[in-house]
Amino acid sequence: MKAPAVYTCSSCRDTGWIVSRSEQVETAVPCPDCRKTRTTNRLLKDAGIPPRYFERGLEAYSAQDRSQMEALKRAAEYVEAFPDVPRGLLFVGKPGVGKTHLSVAILKKLILEKNVAGKFIDETEFLRRLQYSYGPDSAETEREVLLPLMKVDLLVWDDLGTGRPTEWAMETIRTLLNHRYTFQKQTIFTTNWSLRAPGAKPGETTEQALAERIGPRLLSRIMEMAEIVQVTGPDFRTEVRKAGMDFVQSRRRADQIVVQAGRLQCEKCGSVSIEERGKSEVKRNRSGEFVDVFCSCRDCAREFIARVYPGKNRIEYLKSLED
């Protein structure tokens, strides 16, 4: 006897469509049960979040001083209020204080919880793509580079002021940001540059300010578009890790090792909307340090255990709690 077929979605039998009947008329409509999962997966894929930052959520941000605590609070408030927010955010601070972590965490959380269409761009990479688009052998045109960034609901612009664009390229950037400003599209920026250059003593060379990097005209527009969030504190890449407080992997900070929805995927329905229900202490086996995390799928309610190896960017699915 042939075993009955097992479907991820019993409503549409994994076709993505169901039959709607109204006044004896049958119409094929998208399946409401799995449409959200497919949309979320597509939005995460299209966002362009770099693999290095993909697992970093707000819950994994380890604030080390008051400014980082305030920045984390402001990021959470922004997510909660979106899209009813007057301006974007401009995270300002030295390298390593978690500006990119917070901005990517905002983007990913909004995709997962509110199905917001968003994109991440690094300024240096963006300028390189823009420059290549003018070449005769380019795979994409200038319009194909700019249009998605103009239209997307939320744009994360990382490392503002890092690149050294020509005046023509700067004008292109101004056109892009003016479009987003005019059409009230939200933008989050990060920058390592001070807004104002510090005063120099006689014989000293002053550090460049953001206005010198991008020009006062563009800075003025950005100040209209975004609220300034100053982030200070120790450098996560050097000081914090040297002190044994690595926010990704540490025996003393097992509470900071969390499952980031979007990295995990429910084996039953394919959803990336995963909720962490609890976890073990940090343990070690032959493969390295790991944490067993008890998970629940928000879409199909399946409960399972995932073994997370933070230092190796590896996840094993152990078993379903329903078995």
Secondary-structure map:
Elements (H helix, E strand, L loop, with lengths): L16 E6 L2 E6 L1 H15 L19 H16 L6 E5 L6 H16 L3 E5 H10 L9 H10 L2 E5 L8 H16 L3 E6 L18 H5 L1 H10 E5 L5 H7 L31 E6 L3 E3 L2 E10 L5 E7 L4 E7 L3
Parallel strand pairs: 3-6, 3-7, 4-5, 5-6
Antiparallel strand pairs: 1-2, 8-10, 9-10, 10-11, 11-12
Describe, in plain words, how this protein is organized in 3D.
- This protein is of the alpha/beta class and 323 residues long.
- The chain has 2 domains: 61-197 and 206-242, P-loop containing nucleotide triphosphate hydrolases (Rossmann fold), CATH 3.40.50; 251-320, no CATH class.
- It is 33% helix and 22% strand.
- It has 9 helices and 12 strands.
- It has helices at residues 32-46, 66-81, 99-114, 123-132, 142-151, 167-182, 210-214, 216-225, 236-242; strands at residues 17-22, 25-30, 88-92, 118-122, 154-158, 186-191, 226-230, 274-279, 283-285, 288-297, 303-309, 314-320.
- The chain has a 5-stranded parallel beta sheet with strand order 4-5-6-3-7. Strands 8, 9, 10, 11 and 12 form a 5-stranded antiparallel beta sheet that branches. A two-stranded antiparallel sheet has the order 1-2.
- Strand 1 (17-22) and strand 2 form a beta hairpin.
- Helix 2 packs parallel to helix 3 (99-114), helix 5 (142-151) runs parallel beside helix 6 and helix 6 (167-182) packs parallel to helix 8 (216-225).
- The longest helix is centred in the first third of the chain and has 16 residues, at 66-81.
- The two termini are 24 Å apart.
